[in-house]
Amino acid sequence: MQRLDKIISNLGYGSRKEIKVLARKGFIEVDGVVEKDSGKLVDPDKSVIKINGEQIFYREFIYLMMNKPDGVISATSDSREETVVDLLEVDHQAFEPFPVGRLDKDTVGLLLLTNDGELNHRLIAPKWKVDKVYYSKIDKKVTEEDVEAFKKGITLDDGYVCKEAILEIIEATDEGSEINVTIQEGKFHQVKRMFEAVGKNVVYLQRIEFGGLPLDEDLEEGEYRELTEEEIMHLKSF
Q1: Alpha helix (H) residue ranges in the chain
Q2: DSSP E strands: which ranges in 100-165?
Q3: 58-85: pLDDT as tens digits
Q4: CB 87 within 8 A of CB 66
């Protein structure tokens, strides 16, 4: 059972104060009866709730896939910078989602957002070994020696030894390289620092897969969509 105003507010129909006004004016019905007490306890899974004659369908959690653009930070709010949550429609912001893990400000690609704290924990906790795949352009030639070094575990500048990473060379020339790298951690600037440890620099970084979910190719940078039921169940299988 939940308070009626909380149920309606979570769906983006206004603040609890605004919903209280709607109830007093007789715009809210529960199971066919006008309900003027916005604090009434209701089972959203069993009761039929209508606002101004329109039935609402309650859900507690929201799951989104975004193609994060360059220059936007992976945070829920910031006084100076634009955040990924700022890119969401108001109806989705109402669920108060947060990014699963983070992408650096200048890193683009797949970012998941949800208000499901339990799933968020499972996806970012190292013990669940969730793969994150990145496509990157490197300023120098990436070699088989680098592949072996990543497999053994790169030591970062602060002494941290990374877990095994899979480095795949797509193309490598003296002018630069294109690679895919798969990691299961999320240390600060990790991919960039891993390449710096072998004397190379990342010039472009895009996350293309998270937990087996590929970035939706139909999403332009800055766009997002809700996950399908199949995608949600896949993430919950970890």
Answers
A1: 4-10, 16-24, 90-93, 117-124, 144-152, 190-197, 229-236
A2: 108-114, 132-138
A3: 888 999 999 999 999 999 999 999 999 9
A4: yes
Angle CA(212)–CA(165)–CA(73) in degrees, nearest 5? 65
pLDDT of amino acid 126 = 83
* Chain mean position to CA 61: 13
State the amino acid at position 238 in one-letter form: F
Query: What's residue 155's pLDDT?
Result: 97
Dist. CA 17–CA 6, nearest whole Å: 11
Catalytic (active-site) positions: 104
Instruction: Write down the residue that tokens 């990543």 correspond to.
Output: 150
Residue 185, pLDDT score: 92
Q: Find all residues with CB under 8 Å of 180, minimum gap 6, and list them.
A: 133, 134, 135, 136, 167, 168, 170, 208
Which residue shows structure tokens 């020339």?
Answer: 173
Q: What is the mean pLDDT of residues 175-202?
A: 96
Residue 87 near residue 72, CB atoms below 8 Å: yes
Cα–Cα dist 74/94, whole Å: 18
